[in-house]
Amino acid sequence: MRDLIHIGRRPQPQAVAGLSHEEDWKQASPARIQEALRHAMAKGAGGWFVLDASSRVGHTLQRFEVSGRELVAWRGPSGLLVAPAACPHMGADLSCGSTRDGKVVCPWHGLALGEARHGAWAPLRTYEDGILSWVQIPGIEPLTDAPVHPIRPEKSLAGVIRMEVRCEPQDVIANRLDPWHGVHFHPHSFAKLRVLEESPDSILLRVSYRIAGRIAMEVDATFDCPSSRVIVMTIVRGEGEGSLVETHATPIDTARCAVIEATVATSERSGFLAFARSSLIKRIMAYFIERRAARLWVEDAMYAERTFALRQGEFTEIRQRPEALRSRAP
Q1: Are residues 98 and 176 in the same domain?
Q2: What is the pTM of this model?
Q3: What's the sign of the alpha-carbon dihedral 232, 41, 198, 24?
Q4: Interior angle at CA 68, CA 64 and CA 72, nearest 5
Q5: pLDDT 10s per residue in the chain (330 long)?
Q6: Rounded alpha-carbon distances, angstroms, from residue 58 to 51, 80, 105, 113
């Protein structure tokens, strides 16, 4: 392979020998990955689940399934509302109804429901962090006042994708705890990758990701899990220092999971502030950010679904190619 052409600010050489110069398949120890996964799964999530990008949850009713619960989401006078989708009157699906004066109107008999409790029916607690919309569901795990999420850069551009995958949250987290697959499974995006440090809490790696062809950027990035349903990649050295990718795994039911990934890009370069202020440029950049993220997750869905199938004893090989999965991408 011809040498890469690196652009942008590169991380300074570190006095770190790296974990090993062995082949990636030897470094990607199943026992090591499983130990990191167990460490992540032991962390609480406070009963909070990501639904989608805040910008995609509007006044039109939307239906979500979270951990086997049917939910309806919309925006009322005071902001985001999320509630059980079953009407407390006779069980109609409220997501098939309409909204009036900030309330959801049942499609069967016209019962209007809003911020107030109606019998056993009541809106759930919600949280918005400026990029993502969250809902808290009691009865699953100990609750916290707010979800755990990373501190994001103040000046940034963001893009969010949402994709449904046949797996469990642990398969999504395990995928990101295995950075060694990147160059082999995503050669269109990653040219070089080397793990520098590793512990149950964090992975530090140096990666050259492709911009186009031989043109690449080299950065140092960490992976860590703030909670059991999110893993965050943060650029700690090199171009775009402070940028991060949050991969959230929200269970739909026992065999399906929603992957919601937020890419938050920043830069120290003076021209970036002009980009960050322009709504048009933000939309254009978000499109390209989401397109790139979706391409990766179309492929990583195959990885997560395969690990889930093996764990379930479903030995029929998943032979879907990325093209067959693209319909799930935004």
Answers
A1: no
A2: 0.91
A3: negative
A4: 25
A5: 468 888 888 887 655 555 557 788 888 989 999 999 999 999 999 999 999 999 999 999 999 999 999 999 999 999 999 999 999 999 999 999 999 999 999 999 999 999 999 999 999 999 999 999 999 999 999 999 999 988 899 888 999 999 999 999 999 999 999 999 999 999 999 999 989 888 889 999 999 999 888 899 999 999 999 999 999 999 999 999 999 999 999 999 999 999 999 999 998 887 776 776 778 888 888 899 999 999 999 999 999 999 999 998 865 554 554 444 444 444
A6: 12, 8, 16, 17
Count of domains for the chain = 2
Range of the domain at 245: 5-44+150-328
Could you tell me the CA-to-CA distances from 242 to 221, 232, 239, 245, 256 in Å, in that order? 9, 12, 9, 10, 32
CA separation for the pair 97, 111 (Å, rounded): 10
167: CATH: 3.30.530.20
CA 241 to chain centre: 20
Determine the residue type at 243.
Answer: S
Rg (CA), the chain: 21
Q: Which neighbouring-strand residues pair with 126?
A: 135
Which residues touch 108 (CB under 8 Å, ≥6 apart)?
Answer: 87, 89, 90, 92
- Domain-embedded: residue 141: no
d(CA 66, CA 208): 36
In 179-310, which ranges are E strands? 190-198, 202-212, 215-227, 230-238, 244-253, 256-265
